[in-house]
């Protein structure tokens, strides 16, 4: 297994050198030493390419140009160079399921140029209406009518993000060219946005049971597409690392994408473990996380991926997820313990661990007072749909828990104005009011901070191959614990994500085990305290 620890940057809210009020590439460069000190190996940067920014850059207008709000190509080249000097590698986000509607290709498609219409998915109306009843993931229908063409085009996300037609061979060539362009810039990896949606169905029919996703998720040709990218780009250099974002997939399908022998992707993000607070599998609902399902899913997926020699990305946070500490933790009574236990427990499993900016200092969800506070297009679109059936208060409560805006407040660097994120006098981005208490500056020199604990976990994972390569096993007698075994060594990782003590059913004798990591001062070998995480190790015969 590759030994990596990857840090995700959401550029607009990370750090700005300047005063425009939006993060930039120069800002990232100036924080490379911070990232090096954290101990990570690679940086995944969410899109910095030219975009009208309807969906924070996931609506790409030009795949090979840097958006001016982030800087220019020179800045990007300096970033790669400076990162390399520190032995850090850069992974960029590749959004090939759709483009922006402002992309040249789409403009020409709308202009009735057949060549470019074939880059996208245009369909005739059926009985004067949408070709199917499928829903967009951002709310509303996933079809947009173009009167001039008397056709609808498909957009699984917003109407400003038309879906591309992967069956088009000419377009496939373009994708390869774009990936090679970035390789030549020194980029060492790609995160492929919603890549299991690339392969669309032959027949478009109404979905009688769901929102349409069953028709276009994990489509017929998807593995061919991954192999094609692998042969033409990914396999050209062993430093390249790929991670595919696969949504609403099955275990059986997804493990094939990141199975070493299949030569498709190096790893995948899946999301079932972050849907355990969805009532009836509906994101836009409120429910306490079902810890039992979380645990069952970990056992099932970890075991299955291990048995099939496939690789999961390990993560609890990203730019689309509310902060895990606010979801699974207790930010009032056990803030430090929650942040550290969620991280250590999940990132010492088998797979490639990822950190999302700000989680390393325990950043939390925001406080929203009204529906009009939300800025994210997904929240706004879905709120509109929800208001058809729910009261304003109910919708507000759902958005508070589920909105992506929670992850998109500015990074809390220190306790000065704008939390040290930018020198602007007019910050338009979200800033969490707790920044004076929770920030990098106050934690960096404190050996007992969340940040220092993160560094310990990262170091442990990267320097001791027991935690990277060890066989993972789950105990029957004890939930929330697993072991990693390699040669003659064994580690046990145990946690408790409740705010009360839990008795341990495992027989672990105090004199046989060495404590490697603990987020409390002590450990009673019979019980585990609220949000405690403990790593024990011993030699075995
Ligand atoms: C997944 C990205 O992570 C998300 O932020 C974006 O809105 C959708 N894909 C559409 O690109």
TrEMBL record:
Coiled coil: none
Gene: treA
Glycosyl hydrolase family 13 catalytic domain span: 8-408
Entry keywords, A to Z: Glycosidase, Hydrolase
GO biological process entries: oligosaccharide catabolic process
GO molecular function: alpha-amylase activity
Name of this protein: Trehalose-6-phosphate hydrolase
Keyword Hydrolase: yes
NCBIfam families attached to this UniProt entry: PRK10933.1
SUPFAM superfamilies reported for this sequence: (Trans)glycosidases, Glycosyl hydrolase domain
Gene3D superfamilies: Glycosidases, Golgi alpha-mannosidase II, Oligo-1,6-glucosidase, Domain 2
Signal sequence region: none
UniProt cross-references to InterPro entries, sorted A to Z: GH, GH13_cat_dom, Glyco_hydro_b, O16G_dom_2
Family (UniProt): Belongs to the glycosyl hydrolase 13 family.
